[in-house]
Amino acid sequence: MKQENIKSFVEEAWDSIFWESMEVVLYKDGDNWTRQEGSKGVDEDEIIYKLPLSYFYWCDSYFITKDEDDEPVKDEAMKKDFVEDLESQIRQELNL
What are the CA-CA distances from residue 6 to residues 44, 64, 70, 88 (Å)? Predict the structure, then answer.
């Protein structure tokens, strides 16, 4: 698994956060896809990591704030930290 593949996966998660009922999945070959949370495919055994995208999963995260209408928003200035932190966590969990 190349570092670029994990980074692409994490960036996909960042870009898609708050997409309710969806998840992003990382495959052994480095590919990543967004799909309905909990769905199953014929290639489930190829998935090595999943991340939910719903607000409720991420709502307590350091990069989430509320706007003047009390709607959740990502602090775009925190994207670099998010990517680095999550990449590190995934590499550690996958023993890479």
Answer: 18, 22, 32, 9
Residues 34 and 50: beta-carbon distance below 8 Å? no
Residue-averaged pLDDT of the chain: 94
Q: Among candidates 32, 24, 38, which has minimal Cα distance to 4?
A: 32
Place of tokens 């994990």: 6
Other Cβ atoms less than 10 A from the Cβ of 69: the count is 6
CB atoms within 10 A of CB 96: 12
Dist CA 1 CA 56 (whole Å): 29
Over pLDDT 90: what percentage of the chain?
A: 92
Q: How confident is the model at residue 25, as a pLDDT?
A: 97
Where the chain has pLDDT below 50, the residues are: none
Task: For residue 38, give both structure tokens.
Answer: 């909990």
